[in-house]
Amino acid sequence: MIRVLIVDDQKTIHEVLKSYLETEPDIKIVGFAVDGQVALQLVEELKPDLVLMDLDMPVMDGLTATKIISERFVTTKVLIFTVQDDDNYLYGALQAGAKGYFLKTTSAKELVSAIRHVHQGYFQLGLDLIEKYIYKILNLSSNLNEIYQLNKRLDLHEKEMTRFNNQLKNIQIKIEQVIDKDLGKILKENRDLFGQDTKIEFRLDSLNQHIHTLEKRKNVHIRFIWMYPLVLSVLNIVLISLLLRQN
């Protein structure tokens, strides 16, 4: 016997689910809860095998209650029964530990089958959701194929760029070798000329030093010529002073 707890804030859903399940010989409804907090109390008290859980409820939502039940009561499985077909709700329910996810548009036959399979340990997803996600997977596969083809083209371009760069490096090496060879040849052919230039440069340096020495001497002579009258005047003053002292 599969003992089921129904959790939903709408009493009409309680009645609908009761009509779905009460005729099944291997399923028994053990209680009803109107929010997640009451559901936790009843799970602890009644120890149901399975909880049919709504998501949007006051006080405590279904995702929070599912997470707590999955952590505290490991023998109790949670099957989500909701109007929410948004991906975020589905992912949130899976992360919280739910073992199944069905929309409230699900038929009685499909829901009963899902309850039995979840109780046996199988994860269950509503047929309408399966169709939705198969379509998404097909689109994803198409996109992945396009990405794969693009990566192949990028790999080819990368190989071409590598080959082109290697060719450029080889050309650069050859150019440098030719330049070095020609430069060595020019240096060899003009070695004597460079030697003569060195001698000329040495002679020019010697000549410049000699000119610099002459310039210094010239400056000394010029300063002496400029000071000569002053020296004569000083000597005259000294002689006059000596003569006056003798008289």
From TrEMBL:
SMART domains: REC (SM00448)
4-aspartylphosphate modified-residue sites: 54
Gene3D superfamilies: 3.40.50.2300
Domain Response regulatory: 3-119
UniProt GO MF annotations: DNA binding
Coiled-coil positions: 147-181
Name under which the protein is recorded: Response regulatory domain-containing protein
Spans traversing the lipid bilayer: 225-244
Organism for this UniProt entry: Hydrococcus rivularis NIES-593
Keyword DNA-binding among record annotations: yes
Keywords linked to the UniProt accession: Coiled coil, DNA-binding, Membrane, Phosphoprotein, Transmembrane, Transmembrane helix
Any Gene Ontology biological process: phosphorelay signal transduction system
SUPFAM superfamilies according to UniProt: CheY-like
